[in-house]
Amino acid sequence: MTGQRKTSGRRTTSGRRKTDGIPEVGERGNVLFHLEPVNRRTERLFKDVENSPLQAIDEYGTVVLEIGHATSVWGSKILACIGRHRLDVCLYDPSISVFQCFFEINRDTGVIMFNDISERSTSRFVGSNATDFPPNLPRRVVILPLINTQIQLGHEGVIQFDIVWNDRHPQGVRGGGITPRLTRPESKSPSIWNANIKWTKIDDLGAGGFGMKSMKREIRALSKIHHPRIVEFYGSSGHDTGSIKMFMGLRDGSLASFLKNYPGTSRIDLAQRVLRQMLEALACVASHNMIHHDVKPGNILYSMGSCLESTEFFLCDFGQAYKGGVDKECGGTRLFRPPEIFQRRPNTPKVDIWALFVTMLEILDEKDWRRRSRKCDVSANSQFHPIELVEEFADDEETEAYTFRKMARIDPDKRYSAEVCLKKYFRARPT
Predict the structure, then answer these.
(1) Sign (positive/negative) of CA torsion 255, 261, 262, 264?
(2) Architecture per CATH, 209-235+250-426
(3) What letter would DSSP give residue 142?
(4) Rg for the chain (alpha carbons), in Å?
(5) How far is CA 152 from the centre of its chain?
(6) CA-based end-to-end distance of the chain
(7) What separation in angstroms does the CA of 373 have from each of 39, 275, 365?
(8) Which one is the CATH code of 4-195: 3.40.470.10, 3.40.50.720, 3.40.50.2300, 2.60.200.20?
(9) What is the pTM of this model?
(10) Running DSSP on this structure, what letter comes out for residue 194?
(11) Angle at the Cα of 254 (from 250 to 259), degrees rounded to 5?
(12) pLDDT digit string (tens) for 50-80?
């Protein structure tokens, strides 16, 4: 090859160019990360003049492509689209598709996703921190500074590059102007960095009594659960290390923090709203024969609306989720555990219904519930047992919780399921 190529209807351009005039890494503002070539083939493609709006020079003199300082012609949600024909990143290589993949940002949460749209699914992450694409679903996964940092594209992964994150918050836009090919001047959309990328460690999932193979099966099953009342599952890592990490979306806060920050909210209205939305989420979980196993205010997130009626609640943190029909003698928060767990009996999705009833008690806080319940939640050796206290409140006709007493039956066979609760309490079907 001579480095010269022709494109239909376009002038001939060189596959290589001088690096004079290309900004150094760090000169531009609002850069989220840059793509660093791993092999010579990729380095040559990155140097193509078509990619000049994104090119930068790192400390070793390598041409890299900076992502985040300009908006894609595909829209404000897209950071960059990669392919073979007049896209944000042009890689004229026959091994990849015309439209290969793209990076997408959720401006509400700041989460960045990688989407594989190649004809033969030839985009993949490699390395010790790589996660798998969810099976039988659109090929998209989350990327983070320590998750999914090396990509291979094309047949046999001939194009290879690393994702290197900006290690400092950019202050304004410096350097040269942005080419019209990558941004629309009339757009007044905020800087990508205004999204304040949020991510946090939720939990480490050890193998426990189920073993790593079983845990991997549960995560694969979890990746298939999608519902408007369940926080998005973005992926997992550490499958080969013995400590699995799961990545899920964030919201404005948890129900626990909501109760502290908004004490003047009508507790009955709040309980009704949370109950219905969590029953919808749990009905979906149960339809997949899964048990969340840790339903409580801290694991229910909310997105604030202009009023309570527009505030939405979401089930999160599936760190202890597992398939039903298994004896699980521990797990979950003690105050929210149903009798069958203490009795070491086989569990069903109705484990979560008991926990949701206790969550209603937390919201309503009738007859000094919280103070009394904390006495029996100090330790397993407490003289007060949480089951007896929950049963007392469920059978008290003077409490609002009495309305939902069938959620707290000692015998799980007599306890309402999420689907039945929706029909009985809200005359609704699971969504």
Answers:
(1) positive
(2) Orthogonal Bundle (1.10)
(3) E
(4) 26
(5) 23
(6) 58
(7) 61, 20, 10
(8) 2.60.200.20
(9) 0.59
(10) G
(11) 155
(12) 999 999 999 899 999 999 888 787 877 899 9
